[in-house]
Beta-adaptin-like protein
Amino acid sequence: MAPPAASQRYPSPSQPSGKSEVTDLKSQLRQLAGSRAPGVDDSKRDLFKKVISYMTIGIDVSSVFGEMVMCSATSDIVLKKMCYLYVGNYAKGNPDLSLLTINFLQRDCKDQDPMIRGLALRSLCSLRVPNLVEYLVGPLGSGLKDNNSYVRTIAVTGVLKLYHISASTCIDADFPATLKSLMLHDSDAQVVANCLSALQEIWSLEASHSEEACREKESLLSKPVIYYFLNRIKEFNEWAQCLILELAVKYVPSDSNDIFDIMNLLEDRLQHANGAVVLATVKVFLQLTLSMTDVHQQVYERIKSPLLTLVSSGSPEQSYAILSHLHLLVVRAPFIFASDYKHFYCQYNEPAYVKKLKLEMLTAIANESNTYEIVTELCEYAANVDIAIARESVRAVGKIALQQYDVNAIVDRLLQFLEMEKDYVTAETLVLVKDLLRKYPQWSHDCISVVGGISSKNIQEPKAKSALIWMLGEYAQDMSDAPYILENLIENWEEEHSAEVRLHLLTAAMKCFFKRPPETQKALGIALAAGMADFHQDVHDRALFYYRVLQYDVHVAERVVSPPKQAVSVFADTQSSEIKDRIFDEFNSLSVVYQKPSYMFTDKEHRGPFEFSDEIGNIPITPEASGDIVPAQQFEANDKDLLLSTDEKDDNKGVSITGSAYTAPSHDNSNISSQMQELAISGPATSAATPQSSFDFDDIFGLGLSTAPAPTPSPPLLKLNPRAALDPGAFQQKWRQLPISLTQDCSVNPQGIAALTVPQSLIKHMQSHSIHCIASGGQSPNFKFFFFAQKESEPSSNYFTECVINSSSAKAQIKVKADEQSTSQAFATVFETALSEFGMP
């Protein structure tokens, strides 16, 4: 069947077919304005619906303003609502047209129907035109005295709107006093609640420049007013109850009897079905009893059951909010919830964010009586298909082990994780075993016997590999293969992209050398040479430091690098007690959910603005010349100048020494001290007289640094596209879709921090390394940048980076997301290298 001809098609009822459509509406409305024919209200409804639909989709229909006002002379409440909606939308942008509405709105404010009176008064106060405030005072005064509670409720809200339009008009009309009288004497609970909310806002704003307002604000916290609200609290809806309970938190009771009276009045609010009311009541109980230790502990027992009920009966979102508050309470009083640990077992159908919080709860309440059951449950989660939850469960077992005294069974469970043959479980376990050995050195024999059987080739995660390397260095005397494992790792130095791992390799090689010098001597020499040629600033500096201290005196180096260690009694907490107390003071707020005080996510200083820079994102950027970067050879030569004294530099001109191959003798514990004595270099008092000692030192370790040029740092394995371009919208979409591949912290050199006063300089610097900025924001001391890069050989392979730099601590946190996650570490190395060179001449 053929489509109808153009002349036969009808326009959509929500889309005008042309400019004449609005003109037709205007003429039709004018015809109906004075008509009283039967069915005229139905016709008006159809036309009003068209006007509202056009207005909704953004078509300007302000030209029919007068006709809409004329058609409002009707008793049909539906027409009234649509007319008020139209008037409220166009009044603020057309102050002159708003004058046309005053008469009919004032007339409607005196209508016999209370619904129309309330709607008209609300629309009149919603005009928000400063020139019309004089017309609001009369209707508001009448509305506050209206016999109908709905009209009084609207009038109270209207007073607050009037205050924000013209505070002086509101105060001069003595509306706050009228609201106070209504609040204390009105029979309708909603009117009372609106009065309380309006007065709190008005007096809070006026208190900055009015002593009377300060006194009135304080009067809300007087005993008669508080008890008046608490005695009527059952009459209010949930929102109003929360408002009253927030007011009660600020009340200072006169004595203990006052406290118990308030708690008795609010006892039944703990059984309320609404979670907000329960949490607000809990906050009142906790704040009132802070000075009464015994009663405060009894409050924990009383509030425990209602909160646990809300966790199990609500939605996942409500469960998470309640659990966040429970976690705060558990941290303050873990023994109170110790017997209820089963409430925090994870359910199979719970979201990951709820499960993670429950694991934190189980960690916090674990003690001697329930540790076995909790650890048994957590071990089950380690085999979970959700890798993130499996990791968290392994961490939870480790945390429990670090806070308990009897850890026999827990250590056995942790070591069993190493036999699960799951890379992520093994990685998390190695990190925990390292911390466990730091606190319980007596378990080193059992742990090392199991760790020694793990192949370093199967460990890919930087933190896990660093933990393994730490154990190889710390317990080299107990692991027969430790020097050879370290030597194999050091020989693959260039393939190791993580600076953290390379730093641990340097330290482990030093520690192993002090324990087993013959077997580690060659590996240490390779590590020091590779470290001093490393392009990462921290790795280079540490290798240079080790080289200097070894050259100064081997025994001094041993005392510095590998001193006798004491067991760690307590690990540092991520949050200070002051911050925890601040969060507790902000109970029943987002601070508890975010686990940080409100100023950290509301103040501009901490949050920082964020803007997408479309110009940077859309323009292909050419790399800038990088000729000002100091070559590695020159950099190493400068270090060599620092390494030797002036006399040595003069004496060493023209001298060339080549290192000979070294064959390590068999390992013998009795020979360690003598080997070290042979390697010991004389101190500063004799070094000037024996310049040859530095050559002997370099020759012993096979470094050959005296005259041989330092090896050039290997270029990054990852090559980036210098002309990469990406649309900001595509960046945002990718950033939301891709998981975080890795998160790393690194240092920013002082010159870079100084240059960061102009953030654009960092953007240009990263561009010179083919890393482009698509968004930036923040202000001192916090700066945030979003970068992207593309693999040169594969344009479809993108890397996305969030870099947050704190200029006061000179630290940067880097989060990397990638289309090809296997190369994320390589890109992170390139990024850190570029960042470490920022600000350098």
Observations:
- The CA atoms of residues 105 and 382 lie 68 Å apart.
- Strands lie at 610-612, 742-747, 772-779, 782-790, 798-806, 811-818.
- The two ends are 77 Å apart (CA to CA).
- The domain at 3-242 is CATH 1.25.10.10 (Leucine-rich Repeat Variant).
